[in-house]
Design brief:
Length: 1404
């Protein structure tokens, strides 16, 4: 006997769950800020008028706010304004609210953990308090409360007792029908008693109540704001710098701002008016936006440009600087404060139309005026600043390559006198300043490039200098710096000597003379030099960039003028200049270098012990030569300025204070800027720049000018989201319970509500997407092939599809993707597998378009910035393997010039330990790995081109190796590979011998020893060798790339260690490298060769019998020298990576899996890369790339990443003016291929595109839905039990739904219509009464109902069930699912009018 439980049939009834899972319209009205939890960071509180509560948001220190903590203000309270202050004198901030609806003031006393006590109420009688302020009106040091009462035409004062309680109210009239709207406190007559200024909306004036010394106020004094102006908000400040408080008022009735300047006795001059054509000012405040110590005005408006800034001047006038838009049309309140501690004012803006809370951060922008130029001597190569004439104004000195220095004395206003020049040694190249003789007058030191000496100019303190004294140093001095290296309080000198690869230290005697230099070795061709205490031992250290070895040298000082041997760190290409500073505010010095060869800077963050993290790189202009640091935007975080010689500009990189930097901003200067210095040249407390322009023989002076720019960075909502636009149901966390995902249009986020399986849901988790993306639709599917659900969101601002990649645990990673490429806004999106590859494609319809786009998902591979690791000399080849059996990949390089190999043991995160070296034969050219003695430990073989042999290094399994054993090969072996050529389970070796035009086979004994070589002829000058089974006989074969004969040789193996004579196939010119793989997924090995002479690769597809098709060529970079294969984008298709030695990059060719490839994508790979290998170095399951750079003596790691991109595959064209609005993807003709059915409201029909299974479709067949029907929503199901899919369509304009019964061949019968209440906007299907017959559910927009039509299994429907929603809900979307696991279908409805989501659970 089998027992089964069936869900019983029941009548269809629903109950709404309370509270609603989403309710967005909170009606935020006011915001205030303060540190509520005593963490020294500003938080905010918002008054939400429609839901009768305040919401407290705590700052998270990562430029975001926490989810709000909510406190009720009472039923029907309608809180209109909120302020903060210490009302009970306990050092904890409290919150005070004006409750407009219940005629009271609410007091929330704060606790030290950021929480608040329940509300205490102070009655204002039937007055409708609309505004509130806190101030000490009676000079008892305790805060009092004042309210502006819109309904009572009055002001009420509550005097505080300092314990959270207050006196009875005292009322002052503001005049009949005055409708006071805003108030503010200030001492307007300088009598040391606070007064009140009131904006009287109804009587078009400002009223001032002057305070007395006895807790009373005089009668109101009126100042007109003009008829119909309706003043709504008021602000005060010292606008004209005269110690009298002035007033600014927002006048929404006339779209103006009024400014009243105080005359000093409580009277005001005639107001000055500022007009706004397209905005109605609502709220106003005084803020120093641009930090010029002058108050500016910020206004929030009703209108498109909802935020305005007026920059103030010292005479009390204002200039309209900039209007901003956050996407809202009605911003009614704001608060200003420094939320991110960058010393710049930020804004919190409240908008009541979108219920949005926008954070606008103050940023540094457009900050330097156009350059002013001053002539110097010929070819100024270096510049420095100092006060040479002791007038407290900065002066300038340049070192001119034409054998002199130029002195330009400053006037202190950013201008300079004409130059005075002094002769130097031969080719003055670098200059620095300091007091060398301790006379309090600045002196000058110059490095003379071809004179091999430095010149000392002692200053007289009046801007003039003694003749030079010269000191001999190393060869070709390139840069000079000064500091006290031996702690004797006397300045010393350090010089970087480009020609002798060292630095010179000249210790000073304190009288302007110096000891003979002491030298310390550096890397190759050191450039500039800088000093700092890198290990926090109070002793100065030195750093120099080495231009030809692409690294920096650190020399730690002993504090006595001597230094340790150098420590080196890899930098970018051709590092020239260096500067130091604390970039991440950890009190440890960091380093920045300019990399002229790679057009970027390298940041090295210091550990404080003299060691540094690996570099982080940031792009600059072209050929950056010089770098300096300073705080350019006054945020207490160091920034970087770079002189770019080839693009004739300077780059500013603003620091975030954590060691990272913004994208560079550029400012034009003279011709070939060679150096830059910073200082305050006009005494305005802001850093300026001066640049030495070598080709135009002048300097550029750039004075800072800060306009005070705001940038919209974050959007919040009192409810977390705003303007619900789309609802989807799926199990996002794999717990078998249905979850809800929504698109929040106004707040640019996607919300996920996890279902508990009992009909309730978690609070909404907000997934942030791009600013101004305005998501209106989403679809959910597995887009990256990991079996976990992801979310696709069309970005209306950028016309992109953004992907939120899921991990199956309801957490998501945001990924920005390739563009849709449409001129229209994406209106609706859906997914389907149109080519049966088990990956979802996307269908997009657009607002205002008659087309559908089919977007196909591809895995996009890209490489992260290169990390480098130093070797000894000329690493020319590399191989990878786990040499110490820790499951982490290691590397071995063949070092051509030092006759050695270097071992780099990996940490498993993409980084490696320093090299360990082992000797080889002469000039090792290639390296490979394998277990040659069958001890499960990897060994190494190196091909030695200079000694005509191979070196075997047997591994101990701990990362160390035995000394080499050598075996002879042919002449000049260039490449080596391993494999079992005689099927004895023992690894053998093959070497390609370019000098003897053959390959050497060394058969292994399995104990680490090998037989003597056997040789087989190849083409001319074989450069590379690889192995594989080309004829599918289970025996290994060999392919060699012959650079001299422009072909490859195939040697088919007999499986006993011997080989057939070669077969040759043509390639491009001078093939240098060869690799094998199955490129067309036919289980037959193919060949790829890198052709250095023709700048391409040759693909030879194999037939599986040892023969190959003719080559197909693909372009690469310049002079490709090495090649490797792997599946870089995780699509199960082999791809190719090529090293381009001549263009300093790598080419990635992504394979299509049919033997063809995309055009190459290139990534910088350092100077003249020679060899490439691939593997997963950081254990993230994605292939990475390692490159050798022999000319820089480094290996570079480029970590691989994969993301999903969508590419437009085809466009499906609907009828003209069809305007497709909704579509469903299913198999309507039972051919196992997905089809698309579309609702076309413009042409009043539905259309079906039948799919062919290859992402192509038939022309649409249409079916009429009736005249003027405007179908707007579709759903499908088998309504008549014939196993064929049928269609239901919601006809918005004809107030009915239509049923089309399907014939199973992609065609349908005529429409049967069923009336609905009005304007059916959304339709869905499900079996609501458990009778195994599908029912239909409809959301009726205009009449606020949801209608269920029960099905009869013959395709007809009746017995309607009506669910009434709240008034003006306006439901626009309905979805169905079993939310409480009771095997009865429930539904969720999204409401446009109420901006809410309601869930209805079915009951019997």
């Amino acid at each position: 006997m089998f027992l089964c439980y069936l869900a019983p049939k029941c009548e269809v009834n629903f109950r709404s769950i309370v509270p609603k899972p989403i309710e967005y319209i909170y009606g935020p009205r006011s915001v205030a800020i303060g540190d509520f939890n005593n963490d020294a960071w500003l938080d905010m509180v918002v008054a939400n008028s429609l839901v009768n509560l305040i919401a407290v948001y705590f700052w998270n220190r990562n430029d975001t706010f926490s989810e709000p903590v909510k406190y009720t203000t009472g039923s029907y309270s309608t809180p209109y304004m909120v302020v903060v202050g210490h009302v009970n004198d306990d050092s904890q901030l409290d919150i005070v609210v004006a409750n407009f609806g219940t005629n009271n003031v609410g007091i929330f006393l704060g606790f030290n953990n950021g929480s608040f006590a329940n509300q205490i109420q102070l009655s204002t009688a039937a007055s409708r308090p609309i505004a509130i302020c806190l101030a000490d009106f009676d000079n008892d040091t305790l805060l009092d409360v004042a309210t502006a009462n819109y309904g009572g035409d009055s002001i009420i004062i509550f005097y505080g007792y300092g314990n959270g309680s207050f006196s009875n109210s005292v009322t002052y009239s503001t005049g009949y029908d005055s409708l006071p709207f805003s108030l503010i406190a200030g001492d307007f007559n300088n009598d040391n008693y606070l007064d009140l200024a009131i904006a009287n909306y109804g009587t078009d004036n400002i009223g001032i109540l002057f305070g007395n010394d006895n807790r009373t106020f005089r009668n109101q004094v009126i100042f007109s704001t003009s008829s119909g102006s309706h003043p709504s908000s008021i602000a005060v400040g010292y606008f004209d710098n005269d110690t009298f408080l002035d007033i600014a008022v927002a006048l929404p009735g006339t779209n103006k701002i009024g400014v009243l300047l105080n005359s000093g006795n409580g009277t005001f001059t005639n107001r000055t008016i500022y007009s706004f054509d397209n905005a109605s000012p609502y709220s106003i405040g005084a803020v120093d936006v641009n930090q010029d110590k002058q108050m500016d005005l910020v206004i929030t408006n009703k209108g498109t440009n909802n935020i305005g800034v007026l920059i103030g001047s010292r005479n009390g006038t204002f200039t309209i600087s900039k209007m901003y838009s956050t996407g809202s049309l009605s911003s009614i309140s704001f608060a200003a404060g420094d939320f991110n501690k960058d010393n710049r004012p930020d804004l919190i803006v409240i908008s009541n139309d979108t219920a949005a809370i926008d954070v606008l951060f103050g940023v540094f922008l457009e900050s330097f005026l156009g350059e002013t130029r001053y002539s110097t001597g010929r070819w100024p190569y270096s510049i420095a600043a100092g006060d040479f004439n002791n007038d407290t104004r900065l002066d300038i000195v340049t070192a001119n390559y034409g054998n002199d220095v130029s002195i330009l004395l400053g006037y202190g206003d950013g201008t300079f006198q004409n130059q005075t020049r002094y002769f130097t040694g031969y080719a003055a190249f670098s200059v620095a300043v300091g007091d060398f003789n301790n006379d309090t007058r600045l002196d000058i030191v110059v490095a003379n490039y071809y004179g091999n000496d430095v010149s000392i100019f002692l200053g007289y303190g009046d801007g003039t200098f003694q003749n030079q004294t010269r000191y001999h140093i190393g060869s070709i001095p390139y840069s000079v710096a000064v500091s006290d290296f031996n702690n004797d309080t006397r300045l010393d000198i350090v010089v970087a000597n480009y020609g002798s690869n060292d630095v010179s230290i000249l210790l000073g005697y304190g009288d302007g003379t110096f000891q003979t230099d002491t030298r310390y070795s550096t890397g190759s061709f050191p450039g500039f030099v800088a000093v700092g205490d890198f290990n926090n031992d109070t002793r100065l250290d030195i750093v120099v960039p080495n231009t030809h070895t692409d690294d920096i040298s650190i020399l730690l000082g002993y504090g006595d003028g001597t230094f340790q041997n150098q420590i080196r760190y890899s930098a970018g290409s051709y590092p020239q200049s260096v500067a130091v500073g604390d970039f991440n505010n950890d009190t440890r010095l960091d380093i920045v270098t300019t990399n002229s060869g790679s057009d970027d800077v390298s940041i090295f963050l210091g550990y404080g012990d003299g060691t540094f993290q690996n570099q982080i790189r940031y792009s600059t202009g072209s050929y950056p030569l010089y770098v300096a640091v300073g705080d350019f935007n006054n945020d207490t975080r160091l920034d970087i300025v770079v002189a770019n010689a080839y693009s004739n500009d300077v780059s500013i990189l603003l620091g975030y204070g954590d060691g990272t930097f913004q994208k560079n901003m550029k400012y034009s200067v003279g011709s070939q800027p060679y150096a830059v210095a910073v200082g305050d040249f006009n005494n305005d407390t802001r850093l300026d720049m001066v640049v030495a322009n070598s080709d135009s023989s002048d300097i550029s002076v750039l004075l800072q000018y800060d306009k005070g720019i705001l940038q919209n960075e974050k959007s919040y909502a009192s409810s977390g989201g705003s303007q619900l636009r789309c609802v989807m149901i799926a199990d996002m966390d794999n717990d078998t319970n249905l979850d809800i995902t929504v698109a929040n249009y106004a707040t640019n986020n996607v919300g996920v509500l996890l279902g508990y399986g009992n009909g309730t849901f978690s609070s909404q988790s907000m997934l942030k997407i791009a600013s101004n993306s305005l998501p209106s639709t989403i679809t959910i599917a597995d887009f990256n092939g990991d079996t976990q659900l992801d979310i696709a969101v069309p970005n209306r601002a950028t016309k992109l599809v953004d992907i939120l990649l899921g991990n199956g645990k309801a957490t998501f990673t945001s990924q920005i993707n390739a563009g849709i490429g449409s001129l229209f806004d994406a209106y609706v999106i859906a997914h389907g597998d149109f080519n049966n590859d088990r990956r979802s494609e996307i269908v997009v319809a657009y607002d205002g378009s008659d087309n559908l786009d089919i977007l196909v998902a591809y895995n996009n591979f890209f490489l992260q910035n290169r990390m480098t690791f130093s070797t000894i000399t000329f690493p020319i080849s590399i191989a990878v393997g786990d040499f110490n059996n820790d499951t982490r990949l290691d590397m071995v390089t063949a070092n051509y010039l030092s006759d050695s190999v270097s071992i780099f043991l990996g940490y498993g995160d993409g980084t490696f330990q320093n090299e360990i070296r082992y000797s080889t034969g002469s000039s090792p050219q290639s390296v490979a790995v394998g277990d040659f003695n069958n001890d499960t430990r990897l060994d190494i073989v190196a091909a030695n081109s200079g000694s005509n042999d191979v070196s075997i290094l047997l591994g101990y399994g701990n990362g160390t190796f035995q000394n080499q054993i050598r075996y002879s090969t042919g002449s000049s072996p260039q490449s080596v590979a391993v494999g079992d050529f005689n099927n004895d389970t023992r690894l053998d070796i093959v070497a390609a011998n370019s000098g003897s035009n053959d390959v050497s086979i060394l058969l292994g004994y399995g104990n680490g020893t090998f037989q003597n070589q056997i040789r087989y002829s190849t083409g001319s000058s074989p450069q590379s060798v690889a192995v594989g089974d080309f004829n599918n006989d289970t025996r290994l074969d060999i392919v060699a790339a012959n650079s001299g004969s422009n072909d490859v040789s195939i040697l088919l193996g007999y499986g006993n260690g011997t080989f057939q004579n070669q077969i040759r196939y043509s390639t491009g010119s001078s093939p240098q490298s060869v690799a094998v793989g199955d490129f067309n997924n036919d289980t037959r090995l193919d060949i790829v060769a890198a052709n250095s002479g023709s700048n391409d690769v040759s693909i030879l597809l194999g037939y599986g019998n040892g023969t190959f098709q003719n080559e197909i060529r693909y372009s690469t970079g310049f002079s490709p020298t090495s090649i490797a294969v792997g599946d870089f984008n995780s699509d199960t298709r082999l791809d190719i990576v090529v090293i381009n030695s001549g263009s300093d990059d790598v080419s990635i060719l992504i394979g299509y899996g049919d033997g063809t490839f995309q055009n190459d994508t290139r990534y910088l790979a350092g100077r003249q890369p020679s060899f490439v290998a691939v593997s997963d170095f950081n254990n993230d399951t994605r292939l990475d790339i390692v490159v050798t750079n022999p000319w820089s003596n480094v290996v570079g790691i480029l970590l691989g990443s994969v993301d999903v991109i969508f590419v437009k595959q085809i466009i499906l064209t609907c009828d003209n003016d069809s305007r497709p609005r909704s579509f469903v993807i299913e198999d309507f003709n039972n051919d196992d291929y997905m089809d698309i059915i579309v609702a076309n409201p413009g042409t009043h029909n539905i259309g079906i595109f039948l799919g062919y299974g290859n992402i192509s479709f038939s022309t649409a067949t249409t079916f009429s839905t009736g005249t003027y029907s405007s179908p707007c929503s579709l759903a499908v199901g088998d309504f008549n039990g014939d196993t064929y899919l049928d269609v239901v369509v919601a006809n918005c304009n004809s107030s009915n739904i239509g049923i089309f019964l399907g014939y199973g061949n992609g065609s349908f019968g005529n429409q049967t219509m069923y009336p609905t209440d009005s304007y059916p906007y959304s339709v869905a299907v499900g079996d609501f009464d458990n009778d195994s017959i599908l029912d239909i559910i409809v959301a009726n927009y205009d009449v606020n109902t949801v209608l269920v039509l029960r099905g009869y299994h013959n395709g007809t429907f009746a017995n309607m069930v009506l669910v009434q929603l709240e008034y003006r809900s306006h439901p626009f979307s309905v979805v169905v699912g079993d939310f409480n696991n009771d095997r009865k279908l429930d539904f969720a409805v999204a409401n446009n009018g109420a901006d809410s989501l309601e869930v209805f659970l079915q009951t019997c």
